[in-house]
Design a protein that fits this description.
alpha/beta, Aldehyde Dehydrogenase, Chain A, domain 1, homodimer, four-stranded parallel sheet, Aldehyde Dehydrogenase, Chain A, domain 2, 2 domains, 16 strands, Glu-5-SA_DH (chains A, B), globular, Aldehyde_DH_dom (chains A, B), NADP binding (chains A, B), Gamma-glutamyl phosphate reductase (chains A, B), NADP (chains A, B)
Chain lengths: 421, 421
C-alpha cells in the first residue's frame, strides 16, 4: 500500500489534486488513453489483492449486520473487476471531450474568437458502498482531463484503499501524475464536509448514492453540485394504453432491477383503463410479488393492496413495492408528477399520439418515455457512453452525464491590437 | 399602477411565476416575438410616466446623498429608454433557443431518442440600481420561454414598479400571461433572501451587481446560482510585447469604461519590458490620470505611484486605480492570475506566439485575450447576442450568457413497447 501518503489533510489532498489537474488538462488524447489501459491491466494483475482487501470490508460489514443488499453492492468478484476494467477500456475508446472547437468566428475588426472545451479541473466524488464507482469515476474524470478527489463510504474503505493504491502504482508508469487521483481515507463525516466548501480547490461535487447523501451535499455545499440519481419515476397508463405493452413495461420498469434510480415507483392509471383491465393488472402485481400501495379508488379493484398514505407518493421504494393512484385524465397525471416527481424519468403509455405529445410537452423531467420502459435512462443503454451519474437538475447537464458533462469551455480571442470603441 | 397586485407574498409571487412559466414554455416563436415588440412599443408610449417615476427615485437618492456614479446608473432618460426598447426588438430578432433538436438517434430496438432544448422555468434575477436590467432580463427570459422574478435594488423601486406595471399592461394584449413577470416590491433584505431557498419554485438565481451581492447569493442560496460579473482582470505585458499595442490596449482596458467588469484592474509586467519602456508606461498612466498601486520593483520606475498592499492584488477597483506588479516570466504571471483572478477576462500582450499559446493554455478563465483588449468580453461586442450577464463560473454557462444559457434540455424517448433486457 506504499504509494498512498499517510497523514495528509483533506485540504492538502485537494491542493495536490488541483496542481495535478493542471498537468492532466493539457495531456494528449493518446497519453490519457494509454493511462486508462494501464490502469485496467494493473487492476487486473492485482485482482487477488483487491479481493482480499474487499473480504476485510465484507467481514466488517457482516459483523455490523449490514443487510444483504448492502453487502452485495460492497462485494467484489472476478466478474465485477472485469466489468470495471472493461469499463476503463471503453472510456479510452470514447471521443476525447477536451479541445473541441465549439465556435469559431472573426469580428469585422479581425479579432478571432474561438470557443473551446476544457476540463472542469478537480471533481469531488462523494459516494457510498459500491467500489466500482472508485474506478469508473476516476476513469471518466481522467479521460476528460480532470483530477478527482474520491470519498467513498466507510464500509468500503479497505477495498477503496487497495484500488487507489493499485491505480497510483499504474499511474506512475504513465504521464498522469498519481496525485490526480486522491482518496480521502478518513471515515468520519467531517472529512467529506470539508469538501463542501473548498471552492478554491474543488470545481464541482458529484454526490452519488441515496437521497440522504445527495440532499446533505446539495443543501450544505457552496462548491457547485451536480445532483444525481434520485428517481421517483412514474408510469402513466392512459385510457388508450395497449394492455400487452403496459404489462410488459410495468414489469420491466418495476422488477428488472428494483434498486436502481430508473425503476418505476408509482403507477398513475386512467380510471377507464383500470375499469377495463384491473384483473390483468392485479394478476401481474401478484405474479411478480409486487406489494401495492393503492389510493382509495384502486384499493377497490386491486386485491391485497394496502392503503397508500401521503408518504407513498414521494417514496423511492427501490424494492418490489409500488404505489398506484387512479386519475381522471392526463393532466391530473402531469400535476401529480409535478408535485411528487424528482425530474428523473417519466413514462406515458398510450396509443393516442396527441395525448403522448401533450404529456411529453408538459412533463418537466430529464427523460420522458412514450410506450417504453424508464429503465433505459442510462448512458450505456441510450448509446451515450459511460456516465458518471444521472443528473436530475437543470443546469449544466441533465440526464445521463457522460464525458462532456465533466468539461467546461473557454473563449480564446486572438488579435493584433484590437481595442473596443 | 393598477395591474400590480398588492400584498402578495414573495412565495405567492414565485408560485404565480411557476404557473405562468408553463404557459410561456410552450408558446411559438411568433407569439413570444410579438410580445417583445408589444413590450417595446408600450414602454415607449409610457416614457413620460417612466421618467416621472424615475425622478422620484433620483430625488430620494440625492436626499440620501448617494454618490454620482450610483445616481448615474439609476437615472433613466429618453435615450436610455430607447436603448432598452431597441434591446427588446433585437432579442425578438434572435434565434429562438427553445425546441432545438440537439441529438436525434434510434437504438437497434427501434427506440427513438431526441434531445431537445427547453426553458429553465423560473429565473430569479437579483440586481442593483440599473433599471435597464428590469427590461433586459425580462426580455431575455421570456424569449427563452421562462418566467422571471425580479428583485431590483430598493433605490430604484419607483422606476422598477413603473416599468413592470407598463410591461404587465403590454403583456395583457399578448399570449404571455402577465404573471410571467414578477417584481418583488418589498425593499427589505428578507425579501430577496426568501428567493435563495425556494427550490420548488425558482430554477436558477442570477445575481448581477457588485461582489458583495454576488457573494451573498452564492454562499447562501440552495437554489442553483449563475454567478456573474466579478472581474479582477489582468493584463500581462510580456518581454516581447509591442509598445504601441500595449499602451493602446492598456488605456482602452482601464479607461474606456472603468466601472465595468471587463476593465483591467492589474498589470503584470515582465521585468525586461519594464526596464526598456517604463518611461512610456509612466507617461501613459499620468496622461490618463490613472492612480498606480505598484509593487516594490515598479515603484522605482513609476513616479507618483503608491506602494501596493496585499489587498490591491484582489481589488476590483472599478475606477481609475490600477495595480502593477513586475514578474520575471509568463509562468509567474499565470501563477499570480491563478491566485487573484476571478476567472473573468485575462490578456497577454506578446509578439511571441509560443508564449501566447502557453498563457492561453494554462490560464483558467472564461475569456482569454492575445493582443486585444479585455473590454470585448460582452455578448454584444463578441457577436453572441444580448446577454443576461457574464458568468465567471464553470458549470452550465461560462462568459457572456445569452439566450441558450436560459435553457436546459430533455431527452424524449418514443417507442412501441420497448423494455430493457
Amino acid at each position: 500500500m506504499g504509494p498512498i501518503k499517510k497523514k495528509v489533510t483533506v485540504r492538502e489532498q485537494a491542493i495536490l489534486a488541483k496542481q495535478a489537474a493542471k498537468h492532466v488538462a493539457v495531456l494528449s488524447t493518446e497519453e490519457k488513453n494509454e493511462a486508462l489501459y494501464r490502469l485496467a491491466s494493473t487492476l487486473e494483475t492485482h485482482a487477488e489483492m483487491l479481493l482480499e482487501e474487499n473480504e476485510k470490508d465484507l467481514k466488517n460489514g457482516r459483523k455490523q449486520e449490514l443487510n444483504n443488499a448492502f453487502l452485495d453492492r460492497l462485494a467484489l468478484s472476478k466478474e465485477r473487476i472485469a466489468q470495471f476494467t472493461d469499463g476503463l477500456r471503453q472510456v479510452a475508446e470514447l471521443e476525447d471531450p477536451v479541445g473541441k472547437v465549439m465556435m469559431d468566428s472573426r469580428l469585422d475588426n479581425g479579432l478571432k474568437i474561438t470557443k473551446i472545451s476544457v476540463p472542469l479541473g478537480v471533481i469531488g466524488m462523494i459516494y457510498e458502498a459500491r467500489p466500482n464507482v472508485t474506478v469508473d469515476a476516476a476513469g471518466l474524470a481522467l479521460k476528460a482531463g480532470n483530477a478527482i478527489v474520491l470519498k467513498g463510504g466507510s464500509s468500503a474503505i479497505h477495498t477503496n484503499k487497495a484500488i487507489v493504491s493499485v491505480m497510483h502504482k499504474a499511474l506512475m508508469e504513465t504521464n498522469i501524475p498519481k496525485e490526480a487521483v486522491q482518496l480521502i481515507e478518513s471515515t468520519n463525516r467531517e472529512a467529506s464536509q470539508q469538501l463542501f466548501t473548498m471552492k478554491e480547490h474543488i470545481d464541482v461535487l458529484i454526490p452519488r448514492g441515496g437521497a440522504g447523501l445527495i440532499n446533505t451535499v446539495a443543501s450544505n455545499a457552496t462548491v457547485p453540485v451536480l445532483e444525481t440519481g434520485i428517481g421517483n419515476c412514474h408510469l402513466y397508463i392512459d385510457a388508450e394504453a395497449d394492455l400487452e405493452k403496459t404489462l410488459s413495461i410495468l414489469v420491466n420498469g418495476k422488477t428488472s432491477r428494483p434498486a436502481v434510480c430508473n425503476a418505476i415507483e408509482t403507477v398513475l392509471v386512467h380510471e377507464k383503463w383500470l375499469a377495463e383491465h384491473h384483473e390483468a393488472l392485479a394478476r401481474t402485481f401478484s405474479v411478480h410479488s409486487i406489494t401495492v400501495h393503492a389510493d382509495e379508488a384502486a384499493l377497490e379493484v386491486v386485491p391485497n393492496a394496502v392503503a397508500a398514505v401521503e408518504e407513498d407518493w414521494a417514496n423511492e421504494y427501490l424494492n418490489l413495492h409500488i404505489a398506484i393512484k387512479v386519475v381522471k385524465d392526463v393532466d391530473e397525471a402531469i400535476a401529480h408528477i409535478e408535485q411528487y416527481g424528482t425530474k428523473h424519468s417519466e413514462a406515458i403509455l398510450t396509443e393516442n399520439e396527441y395525448t403522448a405529445q401533450h404529456f411529453m410537452k408538459f412533463v418537466d423531467a430529464s427523460a420522458i418515455y412514450h410506450n417504453a420502459s424508464t429503465r433505459f435512462t442510462d448512458g450505456g443503454a441510450l448509446g451515450l457512453g459511460a456516465e458518471i451519474g444521472i443528473s436530475t437538475q437543470k443546469l449544466h447537464a441533465r440526464g445521463p452525464m457522460g464525458l462532456p458533462a465533466l468539461t467546461t469551455y473557454k473563449y480564446i480571442m486572438t488579435g493584433d491590437g484590437q481595442i473596443r470603441s
